[in-house]
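Hi everyone, sorry if this is the wrong subforum. Our group has a chain we'd like a structural model of before ordering constructs, and none of us has done structure prediction before. Sequence below.
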Amino acid sequence: MNPCKMSRSLGPNEANHLRITCDYSFFSVLKILARLCKEPKIFKYRNDQRLLATFKKAFSVEMCFALNFGWANEGIVGSRYKIDPLFFGPEISKLKKLIKFTKDKGSSIVISESLYSNFT
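Answer:
Right subforum, don't worry. Here is the predicted structure as C-alpha cells:
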C-alpha cells in the first residue's frame, strides 16, 4: 500500500516516518538472521547427539519471514488460563500466501510489493 493511496493524506513528516519504519522492519529481520547464524547457544545444537539421533542429520534452526505492509485488526481469544492473539483483515490472507511461498521456495525472507514500494 503506497502511503499516497491511503484514505487520508499524510504530511511529509508522516510519510517519511512511515517509510523509515518499513526500512527498519527489513533491517530487523536481517539482524535476526545474522544473529541466528552466529549465536553460540543455537550453534551448539548442530552437534547435539540427541538431536542427531532423532533427526538422522545435522540439526539447524531456521526461520522464515514474510514482510508485508497493510492494515489488520488484532484481538484476543482464549480462556483465563491461555490467551492467543487473533489477527484478521484483508492483508492477512496475503501474508499467509507469502509465508507459504517462503516454505515452497526455501527462502528466508519474502517481501511484498506493498512493503517494497514504501522503502526509502
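For your construct planning: Residues 50 and 56 are 10 Å apart (CA to CA). Strands lie at 65-67, 73-78, 83-88, 109-111.
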